[in-house]
């Protein structure tokens, strides 16, 4: 993104505070991959309010992607939707800390220590989302599995897990088919697995996708009036990943949003088979 455009969007977030849905709609623009046209927040809001899950993708180091995620959350929250935020960034075993953060029972310094135990990317990239959730009392839900499990699967395969480890993956199976392997090559690139066995790398990604889908559905079952906005990397958000695992378990409606990434994620390079909408670079 151009530096000037980034500064304008950053200034909007800072000056607007929690703002209003009307203010948010000024900046949010989407490309509807089904209808093949650009739309604004005022047009997309009624559609999102009909969903139970809204998956909003990111490149982890792109500040503009996280700003757009925050605006989607604000748009729904200020329209009266009972929003919960599902997080790839947090393991499910950190849920107690997430609850304490939202309720105001833990300070930022202590919460950041837990954040960095869960995630490797800088706090300032995500801090505005966590702070908005705390200010507005929006539930935060850890969707991920213990990292030792995914690391072991990527290194030695799903079959290497002990019975105790598999017990932590309730209702999660790991059968990688050719279609999913083709998807992983497309989404992550043939080089993404480095020196790892490619099938094991696919198994690790599938465990990740399965776990996040199961955790999201468990939360929505317990909170039948909630709509979950899932924040995760673009490789997990595409319809072939988390959404496919959701569809195997439930018929609840969802929408998938991917960020515009020149040369990678554009209206000419992906289709409605990958996502429903692209949120457009404000530049």
* CATH class label of the domain at 34-147 and 221-279: Alpha Beta
Mean pLDDT over all positions: 85
| Biggest β-sheet: strands ordered side by side in the sheet | 2-1-8-7-3-6-4-5
Looking at CATH, which topology of the domain at 34-147 and 221-279 would you report? Answer: Rossmann fold
Q: Could you give a short account of the major beta sheet?
A: 8 strands, mixed
- Would you identify the regions where 5 or more consecutive residues have pLDDT less than 50? 1-26
Helix content: 40-55%
Per CATH, the architecture of the domain at 34-147 and 221-279 is: 3-Layer(aba) Sandwich
Explain what you see.
This protein has 283 residues and is α/β, with parallel strands linked by helices. Helices cover 50% and strands 16% of the residues. Strands 2-1-8-7-3-6-4-5 form an eight-stranded mixed β-sheet, with helices on both faces.
Which features characterize this protein?
283 residues; alpha/beta; Rossmann fold; eight-stranded mixed sheet; 13 helices; 8 strands; 50% helix; 16% strand; disordered N terminus
């Amino acid at each position: 993104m151009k530096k000037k455009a980034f500064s304008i969007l950053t200034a909007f977030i800072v000056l607007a505070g929690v703002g209003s849905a009307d203010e948010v709609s000024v900046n949010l623009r989407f490309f509807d991959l089904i209808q093949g046209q650009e739309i604004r927040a005022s047009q997309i809001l009624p559609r999102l309010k009909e969903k139970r899950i809204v998956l909003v993708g990111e490149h982890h180091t792109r500040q503009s992607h996280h700003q757009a995620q925050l605006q989607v959350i604000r748009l729904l929250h200020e329209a009266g939707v009972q929003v919960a935020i599902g997080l790839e960034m947090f393991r499910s075993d950190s849920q107690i800390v997430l609850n304490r953060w939202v309720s105001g029972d833990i300070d930022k310094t202590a919460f950041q220590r837990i954040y960095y135990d869960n995630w490797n990317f800088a706090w300032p990239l995500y801090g505005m989302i966590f702070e908005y959730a705390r200010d507005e009392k929006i539930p935060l839900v850890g969707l991920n599995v213990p990292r030792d499990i995914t690391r072991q699967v990527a290194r030695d395969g799903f079959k290497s897990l002990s019975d105790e480890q598999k017990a932590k993956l309730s209702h999660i199976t790991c059968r990688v088919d050719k279609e999913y392997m083709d998807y992983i090559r497309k989404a992550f690139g043939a080089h993404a697995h480095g020196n790892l066995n490619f099938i094991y790398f696919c198994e690790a990604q599938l465990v990740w996708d399965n776990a996040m889908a199961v955790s999201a559905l468990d939360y929505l079952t317990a909170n039948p009036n909630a709509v979950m906005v899932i924040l995760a990397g673009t490789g997990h958000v595409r319809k072939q990943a988390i959404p496919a695992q959701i569809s195997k378990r439930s018929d609840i409606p969802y929408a998938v949003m991917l960020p515009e990434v020149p040369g990678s994620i554009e209206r000419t390079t992906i289709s409605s088979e990958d996502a429903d909408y692209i949120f457009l670079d404000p530049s």
